[in-house]
Write a structure and sequence with these properties.
There is one protein chain. The chain has a domain of 46 residues. The chain has 70 residues and is mainly α. The longest helix has 23 residues. Helix content is 56%, strand content 0%. The protein is built from two helices and no strands.
Amino acid sequence: MTPLVSMFIAYTFLSLDTLAEELEMPFGYQNNHLPMDAICTNIKISLREMAGEEETLPTPLRPDVRYRLT
């Protein structure tokens, strides 16, 4: 029974370590990272609309073929 319990505990700790590594840096350019460029562009657009600068609005970023934003 000891090897099974040890494997379960080791699997739990290894899974938590992998999860922690993924959550350490959520900003990047891989598939599961946050699309910071798109978020910042949307904030710029919103702020310029509130300031009344509608003629100089940047174009919003669109997803690529695989529906990924950067």
